[in-house]
Amino acid sequence: MKLAIMQPYFFPYLGYFHLVNAVDKFVFYDDVNYIKNGWINRNRLLFSDNPKYFTIPLAGASPFLKIDQICVQQNGIWQKKLSELMRYSYLKAPNFKVVHQLFSDVLFVDDIRISELAKLSVKAVSEYLGLATQFIESSSVYKNVQLKGAERVLDICIREKASEYYNLPGGRLLYDEELFNLNGVELHFILPKLVPYKQFLNTFQPCLSIIDVLMFNDKDAIREMLNVGERL
User: Fold this and answer.
1) Residues in the chain with pLDDT < 70?
2) What total number of domains does the chain contain?
């Protein structure tokens, strides 16, 4: 069984979905500490034809809190502003109608935690693309927050009876292949290749939120993108 573990990000970039597509089960690491200025509550899109950040405003965010303990602001104003900003920027994109609806269905969901919004965004995109990956939250199952780093990851792999563990290239400095092999788990890394596609501009802007990919590409083309890259 192929397993991946990753913090939940809000509509992450295409490479995140390379990882989702590569495994049988994907664990949302939602009971680890929140990372300020990371990708949990922000990403980039084309606004007025320029790549810019959009951010989900949080209430009381702190690196001393777990991701699933942090709430989003509840005034309702930022959701409307972000939805309208996307409408203004992507109205002429070929898949605007269906993708804007997908984005809005997550954006206006009745939940106050950023972890739930982020998880829902990944699940919604995966369902839209027809990915068969099973999702689970670390906070609801394993109860092993006393473990740290590779020890905790291996504990989850062993309890899930995973034969292979997949991560993105950033994990190569964190995990020891020999340690995983000793525990009967093959360690693999996905090196995504971000295939250029036609946007509004002549110059391709890579590494934007998956929303940009969805706006300009059909489902079959995106599924093909998810199979382009290296497995190390």
Assistant:
1) none
2) 1
